[in-house]
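Protocol step 4 of 5: obtain the predicted structure for the target chain.
Materials: sequence only (see below). No template structures provided, no constraints applied. The aim of this step is simply to have a reference model before the mutagenesis design in step 5. Sequence pasted as it appears in the construct record:
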Amino acid sequence: MRPLIAIPMGDPAGIGPEIVLKTIADEETQRTARCIVVGSRKVMEYAMDYPGSPRLEIVTVDDPRDGKYDPGVLNLIDLDNVDMDQFVVGKVSGMCGRAAYDYIAKSIELANARIVDAVSTTPINKESLREGGINFIGHTEIFSALTHSNDPLTLFEVNNLRVFFLSRHVSLRKACDMVTKDRIIDYVIRCTEALRKLGVTEGTMAIAGLNPHSGEHGLFGDEEVKEVFPAVEELQKRGYKVVGPIGADSVFSQALHGKYNSVLSLYHDQGHIATKTLDFERTISITAGMPILRTSVDHGTAFDIAGKGIASAVSMKEAVRLAVKYAPAFLQN
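Step 4 output (structure tokens):
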């Protein structure tokens, strides 16, 4: 049976409703997945009037297992939490921020209960969340709290390239301070387990260098000598298949071509630039280290084009595709 994927609608004022419609209408998505949207029926109907938006039959259900998963049908859990008299497309709104959070929370509830196999998320807006009184800065923090997961891992996948991140939303100066032996050991152990849960058990993980040419044995910085090399040696003694540091100017290309099964990027932009330059739209974020599987688009709400019917759904379709790809192994492990 096709995996059952929950899709929270995202910020109603952004491009989320539009890309959800386009994804549900996609033939490959229909063939490989059963998608249950968590959102607002009124907003989805409104989005069907955007230029070029597909028109689908909306079937409202309380339980995703009761859905009608046929071509041309959008199955929806309607939280009915948007006042259309106050609704404005393309604007920061506390109402929409709160609604977006509610959609995510309901989707996580379904996944925690194993009613759905995975969650594929659409974009939300940090300002709208704040105006709505939601004290989380983004998806990862929400998923961490509602699944009781400590420090979930971010994994990017595009084509054959998988990239983990040792740090995320911190300054570059702080990111350098976070490159420590103990942190690298902890992350490699947890990243290896995350790959295992996704069914990836073969191959070697590479750790990217921090400094040019991985510091040239201390000539251009000593983080590799003091922290990375000792971490790799300790991990190898424990039996982990890991190498590094490998110069960041070559390691991502090598992993793309199969030399490594994944790369541990030592800071946010290092891995983001590598993956998004390769294929911006098909770079998908997987939140690992949780009891549920979550994939996500890696773009924002795009308020500037919301409602114009020109938003690309490529990333949303790819997020669902990866959820379908990994759900069977994840649920077994």
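Step 4 remarks: The longest strand covers residues 34-39. The mean pLDDT is 93.
Proceed to step 5.
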